[in-house]
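Notebook entry, structure prediction.
Reason for the run: the old model in the group folder had no record of what sequence produced it. Starting over properly, with the input documented here first.
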Amino acid sequence: MPRLILLGFAFLLVGCAARTAQIRGVAPLNRNAEGESTPVDVRFYVLRDDDAFARAGFAALWTDAAGSLGHELIGKPAVATVLPGAVTDPAVCVELPGDEAAWVGVQLLVRREGELPRTLLIPIDRLSSCVVEVTGYGLRLADRR
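New structure, fully documented this time:
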């Protein structure tokens, strides 16, 4: 039994698994009518190529990802609900499918558009060095600390 506890502790020290994205909510985030930050949903699309994602409209991706992305989509999109926090908060790991992935498309569902984009394309080899930050009404990439 002590060996099992030690292995679990070692996993916590290592961090996220190999095929994961890290995400963090940074307030102010998706403010409501009272000015309070609110949680948001973020989708991660694992892709063989970035072309269809780059061409697809926001609504088409959200309502019909499989139809919009076709054979470029690997598996089902991973969905994370992101809570408002601080830039100093630890990032949350989101597990992603697909060994043959070349890109990850990220899409944010918020109340309205803001200064930052609501979609991002990230090369798969960049995932290990960045955190997707959700702030205001958009997405940005930050270096892992």
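Summary: The longest strand covers residues 20-29.
The old model has been moved to the deprecated folder.
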